[in-house]
Specification:
eight-stranded mixed β-sheet; Rossmann fold; globular; 7 helices
Amino acid sequence: MTTTLITGANKDLGFETARRLIAAGQTVYIGSRDAERGRRAAGQLGARMVQLDVTDDASVAAAAKAIGADGGLDVLINNAGIEERGADNSVIGAADVTADMVRHTFETNVFGTVRVLHAFLPLLERSEVPVVVNVSSGLASLTRLTTPGAPSYAYPGVAYPASKTAVNVITVQYAKAFPNMRINAVEPGFTKTDLNGNTGVQTVEQGAEIIVRMAQVGPDGPTGGYFDAEGTLPW
């Protein structure tokens, strides 16, 4: 049976992804910074829970040790993420963003992804069909950000797209370094979640589609790619 860990999975896209993968027969660990929320989510889904704060070395190391002791890991979904927004839920643009805001965003979205990858690579290397899905964003596409008329072009924020572009680079470099693994970045689409104050235009069911699909790729599937539900995205 395939065993999967999803970070930030006690709600929204992570929760829906867990639900779908459990329905497909996988054993799923809900990674949650808040242990109580994680336990509630796991109870609802029939999942396992592991306390996991992607910004904390000790927390990530303890989670890797616990999952390793339980039998190992086949699929890692780096879903935990944050977006800097103002008190009125507006995106913080270039005129107002500070280095501290960018650092805070990168701590979860970029450093957290690397921290979790580093800790769980030994378990993934023992799997027969190791898969990594890094949840990116359409805002990570420099092509889209620089194409007038594209939806991403009008987005004013700096920290979030910069962090997700970094996630894409991480995806490419890890995929080259570990050719036996399937490591891809995905764009769920503008989904109604707490991340964006539920301003998205699609449901979590729609957003989870590409995450679930790429979590189940076989050994002959793509790696080092960047995808949404419709196909390959431009870098």
